[in-house]
Amino acid sequence: MNEMQTDMLADAVARALADVVTPRTTTEAEARGIDARAWSTLRALGLSGADAASLSLEEQAAVLEAIGYAAALVPYADSEAMARWLAQGAGFATDADEILALALASPQALARQRLAWGRHAARTLLCYAEGGRNWVALMSTADLRLSAGANLAGEPSDKCGVERAQPLEVREVADEFSPDAVRQRGALCRGAAMLGAARRAQELTLQYARDRKQFGKPLAQFQVIQSYLAQMAGEVSAATAMFATALRAAGRGARASAAEAAAAKLRIGQAAQVLTGLAHQVHGAIGFTEEYSLQLWTRRLWAWREEFGNETEWARELGAAVIALGPDAYWERITQ
Amino acid sequence: MNFSQLPTDARLDAACKALRADVRQFLRQELATGGFEPQCDSWLRGFDRAFTRKLGAHGWLGMTWPRRYGGQERTQRERFVVVEELLAAGAPVAGHWIAERQVGASILRHGTEEQKQRLVPPIARGESLFGACYSEPDVGSDLASVKTRALRVNGGWKISGTKVWTSQGHNADHLFVLCRSSDGEGAKHRGLSMLIVAMPAPGLTVRPIRLLTGEHHFNEMIFDGVEVPDSMVLGAEGEGWKIVTGDLAMERSGPERFMSTLPLLGEMIREVRARPEDARAQIAIGELVSRFWTLRSMSIGVAALMEQGREPSVEAALVKDLGTRFEGDLAQAARLLFPMIPSLDSDRRLENYAAQAILHTPAYTLRGGTNEVLRGIVARGLGVR
Fold it and tell me: Predicted ipTM?
């Protein structure tokens, strides 16, 4: 698919979700841990099973950005863009209708492990390295004795109740499905969704600053508020630009694009901190309420920045790689 | 806010790669033969006429300009490659910076055929250096309020007034002077003209305005009836504001707005190799590299927009706001990561670069439009101003 087709896909997903997802439906769905209507809407677009797994990373990112923008409570990233893709890589047959869960953990070390969307998945994939080789274990989720939990966005983040469990099947996988590669893909998937959420939080704030009047004029006419809005635009643009660089580099394979992916998740995480802070500051107390929708996007940014590596983890990896390259080679690497 | 993506173009990518290799080879050679001493903020403080001429001889000045005016007809992307390599190396590029970055393109856009043929090729050869005379003692961010007068005289104009912050004005061969040539019927953006003054000029006094380090880069330029023939008026009389805003778009969009302190990052990486397991150092370096990489991605997007013939002034303002803050933050990160005494006389390069970077910190977020002015431009782009 070329760039135009990716744009069309993004547009189709955005429009389909806009028809069924509202702040209210997402808030209501939180109690059930999934927005079933949004999920079936995505499936009706053909975004499930082998079709979803066959999308390029650019296309996955386009879908995920639309999901983040809509704040749709759906397991697309974990189940389709990641677990489905990993199951294919490992050669496990899956049912297009089943939701799959995924964790970067060995079946022997499950204590304190969290499982995103685990309660909705009959089967779970565990990706881990052992003895210098990469493995994927297929598990029956029931064996993990999950208890319900949630991340800051109210998405299911269920807790494993066992320290170890017996896999249904274990397969060795190639380097492109190593735990590092999967984590990197996860960082890009979360990054894409974060861009959508960031854009929405920025738009909401801009609109609010135009509409809300204090001291006889709209907030947007105060110079200090204009400065905040400009900073927000800068952060969204910065995150978008670094993510685009990482996505383009991803075509070279996980290992050869690890530095770009690290820089992207890190930069988007930094942007999330500035954006959520300024968005709430401009909104005042109303933004801190459940009834006003800003929280759907700021909570997503707060949750997703932790998942598949936070700023410190990626900064350390990137820094270590750069230091290992040294003062000349690092420059050659960035400008390659 | 639209950061365009550069279309992939295998032939151009290959050309850029080859060009980058040539520039690196040249820089290695220069360093090996003591051709220059790397430094931070080299596009302000690294004045070297001979080095500028060498760049001209390689065809690396005015690369995007038409061949008949001394250019190479290469792309914005290729110019970007040369510029970022020179800045990363801390090479002395201050001599030609103003002329090559904005004056040449302004003359090509607004000049007469005679002006283009006479004034542009020497810039591309690195033989004609320009100083920009825009700000005045009472006119900083509010540039449209300039008071320096150009009075009509027989066959030309007579300039009187005082300009400040003219970088390398004492070394320049020509000056780009923004003047008030009429009262503009009450609208201050009208009635401005851009005049070109050839140096030395009778009636012009050049006085240094030393930086807080004592360095001499800035000048006060006092015009007392300096005569300029009609042939040295750029564009039509009264078009000065249009010219200067186009000029500022070029002035604000380049990689020098986030690379002024980059040589220091290289030194940090060099020194930290002695302690490879230092987590704090890894995190600090990773954060800086991520920010730099982001800015570079944005700046390439700005170059792409320019290549498409657009004037990305809002995008450039965004990059400059983020980029100039990065320049200062890099200096801060360096001093917090290493026990050191930053000093201009240190023979430890890290301390030397840190001193240069810290002492020039106030300039980053001021020159070429303060970050407050830039955010105003962005706010206008957002439709709230």
Answer: 0.96
